[in-house]
Amino acid sequence: MASLIARKGRHKQRYENELRLVSGCIPYKIEKDVADQDSNVEFRLSVLMISTPNRDGLVFPKGGWENDETDREAACREALEEAGVKGKLHERLGSWEFRSKSRQNSCSLEGGCRGYMFALEVTEELDSWPEQDRYKRKWLTPEEAFKFCRYDWMREALKKLLEFSLIAAAGTFVEHQRPAGCSGKPSTMHRLEEACSKCIVQG
User: Fold this and answer.
1) Closest C-alpha to 95, from 50, 65, 68, 53
2) Is the pTM value of this prediction over 0.90?
3) pLDDT by residue (tens digit) across 103-158?
4) Is-contact 27 48, C-beta < 8 A?
């Protein structure tokens, strides 16, 4: 059973080439909508973001990767501690180098991070979680989530998540086979592709 007490301090923190190693995830869910009059099955993708203490905006759950856990274990732990969700951790979306929010305008090496982000398919939302007083969660459409991505690495990670979920949604759709004689892409896939195409990383 996962601990309901958040880890504190950085005495176990991993570093590499003076960069603090961070692991996190983009929690998501794909829900089936009620079939319409033509028996078309719709699937809706939602992305979970969390509020940050003493700052406007939303972020993805992430935090320090410690030396007694893998990057995957760290990502699941941060999702539980900050967002109160559990689920199935899928592929790594990528790794990015960025500065901690308190060092964004600093020219020093201090505050540099290398973050590893994963896709987390949410299967359980807890009513209470370790850092509930500091973080509030919010489910968003991909388009809404993209608007809250303040940094390039967040937009890139979200785009990777959308590309991954496109494949996942396609597999889910195949499992719920379309009626005989039905052709063309389901509108669900069109919507996900549109959302993905809008996630153009701005330099």
Assistant:
1) 65
2) no
3) 444 334 467 999 999 999 999 999 999 999 999 999 999 999 999 999 999 999 99
4) yes
Pairing label, strands 85-99, 112-125: antiparallel
With beta carbons less than 8 A apart as the criterion, state whether 39 and 132 touch: no
Amino acid at 33: D
* pLDDT one-digit tens code per residue, 69-102: 999 999 999 999 999 999 999 989 999 999 876 5
Contacts of 173 (CB under 8 A, 6+ apart): 41, 43, 186, 188, 189
Concatenated DSSP letters of the chain: ---SS---SSTTB-EETTEEEEEEEEEEEEEEEPP-TT---EEEEEEEEEEETTEEEEE--EEEPBTTS-HHHHHHHHIIIII-EEEEEEEEEEEEEEE-GGGTT--SSTTEEEEEEEEEEEEEE-SS-TTTTT--EEEE-HHHHHHH--SHHHHHHHHHHHHHHHHHHHHHHHHSPPPTT--S--HHHHHHHHHHHH-PPP-
Phi, psi at 153, each rounded to 5°: -65, -35
> Which tokens in the block code for residue 70?
């893998």
CB atoms within 10 A of CB 106: 12
What's the CA gap between 198 and 95, in Å, rounded? 21
Give the model confidence (pLDDT) of 44-77 as tens digits. 889 999 998 877 889 999 999 999 999 999 999 9
* Residue 55 pLDDT: 77
